[in-house]
Amino acid sequence: MDSEPPQIKPIGGDGAVSLSAGSAASALDERGSVTLSAAIFAFGTFLSRCLGLVRDMMTARYFPNDLRDAFIYAFRLPNLFRRLLGEGSLSISFIPIFVEILSGKGSRDASDAHERAKSLVAGVFSILLSVSITLSLISILFMDEILRFLLSGEAYLSVPGKFELTVRLARIMFGFLVLISIYAFLMAILNSFKKFVMPALAPCFFNIAMISAAVISPSLAAPEEVLAWSVILGGVLQMGVLIPGVWRLGYFPRPTLKIATPEVGRVLKAILPGIFGLSLMQLTTIVNMHFTSKLQSGAQSYLYFADRILELPLSMIVVSVSSALLPSLAKYWSDDNKEAMSETLNHYIRLILFIAIPAAIGMFFLARPIVSVLFLGKEFKYADAMATAQVIQVYAFTVVVAASVRILAQGFYAIQNTWFPALAGGVALCTHVFFAYALTNAFGLNGLAAASLCSATVNLLMLITAYKRWVGTLRMRDLSFSVGKFLVCGLAMASVLLLHPMLSSFLGARFYMRALALAIMVFAGASVYMLAAHLLRIPEYHETLATFTNKFKSKLKRV
Fold it and tell me: What pLDDT shows up at residue 343?
């Protein structure tokens, strides 16, 4: 356990500021490594999201609107911390400092670096565990008051027993906060060593637990409570599968009272504004809870299911790439290689947009068949499906903006600047509240969805401006030219997706025929997009294809 751990090798050669031939080759090799790591992470995330969709399909079809709303409102709060910790602030604050220590910077020798890293792990874990347990207990005790403040809409409170059920379910599920905090910390340790497989697959166990509960719960007296307890069981499984990997690395966290170390202080200094910034972004969920409580029954379900569709490409692509990218950017910054850092960040913004733009176009044109295939049936009626589809169409292009925000923010976290993303998040939250109030009153639930797009755009513009000032240029002219080419490919894709109603009418209205029509359209649209990218010789298409081919050939040769 105390043997010297594997070291993370320097990325930028001799650390020169300019991109020499050697450092350029190193940068290209690192991009390939990030792409492969992101692909591995994306596969696990995609599998988890697919299982999550199965869970949501069962929730939609077997639970009536009011009961479903109560469960979703209750689940929103602990799930907010999953997004906050499991997909964000803990990793972005801990990994750059942990990687720096592992690389030997500021240490006498490898043994000293190992001990400093272990001390950092123990100190941060102790603080995280104490805070999460305390926050969880306080929230459980005052859950009635918390939810009464958030769900003050007359439309929600007027349904007999609905609020009380929401409080009961929220108290059961809030222990998930402790479990997701530990999972996020273990994931950050593994990601620091560029181990992405198990962290990506771990959420699958969470979803399997909830799917199992959804299967058996309809036949029981209190199905919603069975589903709530499965959240806790799933959290235990999700956390537990990461323990062996961290144990083998020699960095399994142990509680300690020695938390007043310089390294722990640096992490806390970084994590507090990071949590504040990301919490401001996630507080849009809380704002939306308040506004949907004033709307018709089912509004929260429609928004939640639209969110889930939006998360499929967003989490699969963006979380995967950003998790794999952050250690590399942090190493470039540590080596004072700003040019390589900016080149790498620019490359992955273009790569993300190359995928996010067709995803947004696909969701816009296929919103109705997607919702129909996934959720329509039994308790989820045609009117529910159409309302959800309209929200998805409004939400669709939020994928492009939110993806850009998430990747660009990694540049700030890599230089250990967490305060500006926090400031941008605060401005975006205020913008969201303003637009949510104005647009919800005018357009109802669709207006609330549009407010998210407006606030995300404000956030993106602030990050672009600040990065150019503090780090370096993102070559916006080249980036805009690339986006223009992606849109041309997207138009070709859209022309194919417009044929869906004709194909659906030809195949018929049975579930399997609707699913087949949707699958054909997704495959046809993606094929046309990729073909257009090939014909236009878009670098992101050819470079990604070449990277995967070369990496897998290399793996085969080793075997």
Answer: 83
